Amino acid sequence: MIAPADVSGLPLTVVRDRGERPGLRSDELLALARACGADDCGLVPIEDPALRGEVPHIAKAFPGTGTLLALVGRMHREPVRSPARSVANLEFHASGHELDAIARRIVRRLEDDGIRALNPAMAFPMEMDDFPQRAWIVSHKRVAEAAGLGRMGIHRSLIHPRFGSFVLLNTVLIAADVDRVGAPLDVDPCISCKLCVAACPVGALKPDGYFDFSACLNHNYQQFMGGFVNFVEDVADSRSVADYRAKHSYAETVSRWQSLSYGPNYNAAYCIAVCPAGEDVIGPYRADKARHLRTVVDPLRDRVEPVYVVRDSDAAAHVARRFPHKRVRFVRQSARATSIQGFLTGMPLSFQPGRAGDLSAVYHFQFTGREAARATVTIRRQRITVAEGHVGRPDLRIAVDGAAWVRFLNRELGLARLFMTGRLRLRGSPRLLAAFGRCFPA
């Protein structure tokens, strides 16, 4: 364990005549963050346009926030690259705990100087009340981008200009203003090598930049959140030990125990592992690309492992086509809609372009009941858009009781029963509803 840094002697000038919030010097605040252990850091004002969507969530957790201090913690590369997932997960957890401790030390020093500050978790625990909707207090990646600490790559992780993808992030919310803030990078560290696309076992990353969120969630996070809920329901639904074992192997059950005991384990972080970007990382790749493929990429691609996918999904087809040596394990969708808003928000995340095929249609949804809403869903050229209200001329109108629709999505009600009880009404071809359903295998 790294000993806490003694930062009591570092200068921290506090100016009290700047309106509602006190003022701090940027250079002193950044020096404090580095002395507390941050490998890099940057500052963003709460008014930054890039954080507009974050402000309501930040204000709810910590009213009075004036400045966000973005923190970068470097991970060790070789453990993350290891095909032994226990080694990689140990690095993620150890680095994450260290980054949380760094943020806590910063908050303590600020508090000692009369400055209010808050350190949300680097990852978990989160605010899970509305899961699977947003659970995090602040998007560390958005803050780090705005502070000029990197840019998100095709793999949706931040690429730091020096440390590459081998970083974890945190943010300290500070009820103070500063005299100087950062700015986004002018140069993108991503080198567009597409190795993250090649290494992803479920094809969540596409060459054109499309991201299949549900494929990543169902496999990489199978030990987390929604996957755990499905596991508990399988236990409750099993008629006998034999029935349970038909659903979960002995090794999978032990893996659940390990995740509960030592922190949830990622099944893959291959997109990060194979990324050669970053000044400290790219040298060996440029010197010998074939060796990088042989020693870093191939061991992960060749690894025989269970791959968790939803039946009839794009991910299932990808594994069968690209990784026939891996063991396909069919699971239920990890992310579920628990509300109509969750259904509308989640559609673009769970949409399957391959399953959509040549479907071209506009759907008008009319949800009635306590969560009344209207929405337009357009599926065209294997892409989906969801708009509030009714826009344009629909090919199919769907009027349905909102609560009943959520129960249908969670397999608590059948489609036939919705029709028979009058809670679901269509104007247009029912075939379009079936085509819509194929885009969201569960």
Q: Which descriptors apply to this entry?
A:
alpha+beta; NADH Oxidase; Nonspecific Lipid-transfer Protein, Chain A; 3 domains; 19 helices; 16 strands; 17% strand; 4Fe4S_Fe_S_CS
Describe this structure in words.
The strands form 5 sheets. A 5-stranded mixed beta sheet has the order 14-13-12-15-16. It has a 4-stranded antiparallel beta sheet with strand order 3-4-8-5, with helices on both faces. Strands 1-2-9 form a 3-stranded mixed beta sheet. The two termini are 44 Å apart. Helices cover 39% and strands 17% of the residues. The protein is α+β, with helices and mostly antiparallel strands. The protein has helices spanning 26-35, 55-61, 77-81, 85-112, 140-146, 195-199, 213-220, 225-237, 241-247, 250-262, 270-273, 282-287, 289-302, 314-322, 340-350, 353-356, 402-409, 415-420, 430-438, and strands at 14-15, 23-24, 40-45, 67-74, 117-118, 151-152, 158-159, 167-174, 177-178, 306-309, 327-330, 361-368, 373-380, 383-388, 396-401, 424-428. The chain is built from 19 helices and 16 strands. It folds into 3 domains: 14-178, NADH Oxidase (3-Layer(aba) Sandwich), CATH 3.40.109; 195-330, no CATH class; 340-438, SCP2 sterol-binding domain (Nonspecific Lipid-transfer Protein, Chain A), CATH 3.30.1050.10. A hairpin with a 7-residue loop joins strand 1 (14-15) and strand 2 (23-24). The longest helix is centred in the first third of the chain and has 28 residues, at 85-112.
